[in-house]
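Can you give me the bound-state structure? Components:
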Amino acid sequence: AQKITQTQPGMFVQEKEAVTLDCTYDTSDPSYGLFWYKQPSSGEMIFLIYQGSYDQQNATEGRYSLNFQKARKSANLVISASQLGDSAMYFCAMRDRNTDKLIFGTGTRLQVFP
Amino acid sequence: DAMVIQNPRYQVTQFGKPVTLSCSQTLNHNVMYWYQQKSSQAPKLLFHYYDKDFNNEADTPDNFQSRRPNTSFCFLDIRSPGLGDAAMYLCATSGRDLPYEQYFGPGTRLTVT
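Here's the bound-state model for the whole set.
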């Protein structure tokens, strides 16, 4: 069965510093997609970044980058130059290719302080 | 801008009184999802539509029903809300192209009194 594990319930980072949010996954499917979503206190889930299992390079989107280590089955999110507005819950997720469903991790609450 | 819209943003209902939450999308996506999210937890999928094909999760209570009258609209009906149904309800859509990311609406926060 597919599974996403986020071992950090909460993280603190100072403004302008970089922070890494951990995500490991388990799947027997050779083709898969990994997603990171941000959920501010308002509740909306915001898509941040995607990594496909066959992508040769690590995904990047602005200040977000994905440290994809396939052999270790990890897909850590790196946020550079943290901003106060980055304070939110962050979910790592995997798409089940057969069902179109997203399998979520338990999330990491990030707090950015001045 | 293309988007996923949920109404209302906040809904208060009484114990046992039926309630309907609505979702609409302007993305023309073929897949629509309903999630339930309780405090500090990950979203839990209730059901989803692939076009008109309805897919119910095995552990979704019978109390929860859904309708998708057309591509743009999807409704979540809670027939007899209990106190345990108080949660954030998120609607999402995804399309036919890679990477099939899901686009979420702002959610409806349901309170049951």
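A couple of observations. Residues 2 and 27 of chain B are 5 Å apart (CA to CA). The longest strand of chain B covers residues 87-94.
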